[in-house]
Design a protein that fits this description.
The chain has 149 residues and is an alpha+beta fold. It has helices spanning 4-22, 28-36, 93-107, 118-127, 138-146, and strands at 67-76, 79-88. A two-stranded antiparallel ribbon has the order 1-2. α1 (4-22) runs antiparallel to α2 (28-36) and α4 (118-127) packs antiparallel against α5.
């Protein structure tokens, strides 16, 4: 079992280092981690092997290190449904954060204009050509989570 409180502390510490290097407010990644991991109730671990993916940001797909499969709620306009979903597997949180930065630079470059303003940063992620999340309540959830970081 994963001690999510310990993991969140590590995510916060790393976020401070990334803030120094990128200017991205250190609250952003831990707030995303809270949402994506259901405030610790649903950490992203493989549903069968129980393997930890070091993917607190909930980045879907496959990485150089493969993927994990989890049950996840997915959203389609008007309804939510449960599905088996693959999430990228990393060997460290730094690797996950670096991948997130790569994706943000590629698909959401306008977000960097708001890197010191978490809510505006997230608004840009949610309006990009590829959606950071399809949940209609993600911005509201993010606003709540950021207050807990």
């Amino acid at each position: 079992m994963v001690d999510f409180t310990k993991e969140l502390r590590a995510i916060k510490d790393l976020s401070l280092k990334y803030q120094d290097n990128t200017g991205i407010d250190y609250h952003i990644f831990p707030a995303i981690a809270l949402i994506e991991n259901g405030y610790g109730k649903y950490p992203l671990i493989d549903r069968e092997t129980k393997e930890w993916a070091y993917n607190p940001l909930g980045i879907k797909g496959s990485s150089l290190h493969g993927y994990i499969t989890v049950n996840s709620y997915e959203y389609f306009p008007g309804f939510a449904y449960s599905a088996k979903v693959t999430f990228r597997k990393y060997l460290s949180y730094s690797e996950c954060f670096d991948d997130a930065l790569f994706l943000i630079k590629r698909f959401f470059p306008s977000a960097f204009s708001f890197r010191a303003i978490p809510i505006r940063f997230m608004e840009e992620l949610l309006r990009g050509p590829v959606k950071w999340s399809t949940s209609s309540s993600y911005l509201k959830d993010f606003s709540k989570a950021i207050k807990l970081v």
